[in-house]
What we know:
FAD/NAD(P)-binding domain; 23 strands; 4-stranded mixed beta sheet; alpha/beta
Amino acid sequence: MITTDICIIGAGPVGLFAVFEAGLLKMRCHLIDYLPQVGGQLSEIYPQKPIYDIPGYPEIKAQDLVDNLMDQIKPFKPTFTLGERVDHLAKQEDGSFMVTTNDKTKVHAQVIVIAGGLGVFEPRKPALENLDHFEGNGVTYMVKNPETFRNKKVMLAGGGDSALDWAIYLSNVAERVTLVHRNETFRGAPDSAAKVYDLANNGKIDLILSANLKELGGNGKLKSVKLEGKSKEEITIDTDYLIPLFGLSPKLGPIADWGLNIDRNAIEVDTRDYSTGVDRIFAIGDINTYPGKLKLILCGFHEAAIMMHAAFKYVYPDQKLSFKYTTVNGVNSF
């Protein structure tokens, strides 16, 4: 079990900056995110997209902003659980919470901060019969640890950057990599596509274009995938793993069942401290809503600063908050 002062659900830019604001007040943070890396949408969807509304940066790429935020919070030694979804929240007798993820990771915290952006990013799944029977038994939607696929037969499906990048990387890890895409051209970066074509031409991977996933085979564990081509011809490929990489869809997820006030898939908050109406639970960033709400990263930063001062009383109930400018307080590690 992990014990911390504040559990932040969501490791996007607003969740990361919240760690900094908590650290200034000597509060420890643990972050949980369903994505396999920090950064939220910035890292997963548009890492190279320029952002223009971050104070002090006329222009900064999304991934550079995430990297800078990670450097900024390093002195406060946050801990992370990535690639897992928060499934259950249980209030304890003393008012604190026990958080449990889908992989049974448990986090005990005095305060919960929901910074989940647009919600949990869940994978878009292929329409295959008995797909759920093979999930966790050969079908997975993300690469949490590439060594899992060492000397295994791996099939990737998709045409975006994730599919291309993992095909390139796993070509040096897996016994055999097969990349399947329903179109003849890729959506991902041209440089990555060129590398994939080179690998295929040199016999390092199998590349199958203009084909769709049709049927999964195996008895309890995945053994093969049947593909269907444009002309309805079929081919069966033996494989140990299938990794569909068809993008992500934001959903509110289990948060919707926590007794919070929800308006159009957003959590209503009190703008005095961004509390949710449930004691010790706060919501910041794009996941919340209130009159005049602007879904901007810089607004989420402001919300993080205000709410951490409100959270202080739960972490240190016997202390009086005495906070001056950061130039006076300094940034010290724990």
